[in-house]
Every structure is written in structure tokens, then in C-alpha cells.
Design a protein that fits this description.
About 75% of the residues lie in helices and about 0% in strands. By secondary structure, it is mostly helical. It has one domain. It is elongated.
């Protein structure tokens, strides 16, 4: 990596608007975008690979789980419990891919900062760079926002029920929530 490219990446990451000091600004800017884009693509591919590994969910023993679940007195409680189980499953999946997802979010943010800087300098960049970067960002952010929505619903459970669910050993690694809910008769 040449000095100009390193300088652009450091300056953009440092949020210092001194890009005009880089030699051969246009060529270095395009290289910086391409370099950052390649890192984002690599991070996306690594996340995809890890997600496939983490998605190999284990089936849990329904009899064992049933004994450990909070009691269900009505359909409303049944729905809350099924949402909680879904949330815990998604949480474990997110924990499994956390490192790769963080790398993707970081790399797409770097691409965004470089693209913004390049646009401000009126340097023409292919629209596919921006579109593809936005797609990769949406993948990572969508997973996180889904988790947050689930967490809000999960936090609406009584604390005693949450503690009871959090003590279940099978809920501490990725598991197949849909199959479990079907086996428990809580989902068609």
C-alpha cells in the first residue's frame, strides 16, 4: 500500500478533512475506495461463512426443556413465551457471528466515510460501490435491529420468567427455536 492510500485511510478514519494533502489525490482516492470495498466484501463473505456455521442449530430435548419452562396459563403467556424462545435463539446466533458482524459494520462504515469524502471532492466513483456497500450494511444492521425488537418483547416478560429461561443450558448456544416451538405445540 503506498503512502497516499494509507494517508487517505488514516485521515478518513480519523475524521480529519486533510485529504487534500495526499499526493495524486484522485488516483489515491479511487484506490482507497477500492481497497476499503475489498475489505468490506471480505468481511461480508466471512460473515456469510460464519453464519452458515452458526445456523447449524442443535435440536433440543423437548421433555427436558418443558420441565424447565415457566408455566403457561393462557394464550397470551404462550405467545410471550414463544417470542422469548425465538429471541434467545436469535441472541445466541448473533453471539456466534458477533466478531464477523462487527468487522462488516466497521468496514462498511469505512467505505461510507471514504465515499462521502470522495463525493465531496467531485471524484466519480461507480454507483455500484455505494449500492453494494449499502446492501452489506443493511444485512448487518437488519440482524441487529431484529435482535433489539426481540429484546424489547423479551424484557416485557416477568423477571422471574426471564431468569428461569436464562438458566436453561440448551438456550446458551444456537438452537432450533422453530423446531422446539413446534415440538412444544406452540407453533404450527
Amino acid at each position: 500500500m503506498n503512502f497516499g492510500l494509507r494517508f487517505i485511510i488514516i485521515v478518513v478514519l480519523g475524521n480529519i478533512p486533510l485529504l487534500c494533502l495526499a499526493t495524486n489525490f484522485v488516483d489515491d482516492s479511487i484506490q482507497a475506495v477500492e481497497f476499503a470495498e475489498a475489505k468490506a466484501v471480505k468481511a461480508y463473505n466471512q460473515l456469510e461463512t460464519k453464519a452458515l456455521q452458526c445456523d447449524i442449530k442443535k435440536h433440543v430435548d423437548v421433555k427436558n426443556i418443558k420441565q424447565q419452562l415457566p408455566s403457561i396459563s393462557n394464550d397470551k403467556d404462550k405467545k410471550k413465551l414463544s417470542v422469548a424462545i425465538g429471541y434467545l435463539s436469535h441472541l445466541q446466533f448473533i453471539q456466534c457471528v458477533k466478531k464477523e458482524e462487527s468487522a462488516l459494520l466497521y468496514s462498511t462504515t469505512v467505505v461510507r466515510k471514504i465515499l462521502d469524502t470522495v463525493k465531496d471532492a467531485n471524484i466519480k466513483i461507480s454507483p455500484s460501490f455505494e449500492r453494494d456497500n449499502n446492501t452489506r450494511s443493511a444485512v448487518a444492521l437488519g440482524s441487529i435491529s431484529t435482535l433489539l425488537i426481540g429484546e424489547v418483547r423479551y424484557m416485557n416478560l416477568p423477571e422471574s420468567s426471564r431468569k428461569q429461561l436464562e438458566q436453561i443450558k440448551e438456550f446458551k448456544t444456537p438452537f432450533d427455536a422453530i423446531k422446539l416451538l413446534q415440538d412444544l405445540g406452540m407453533m404450527p
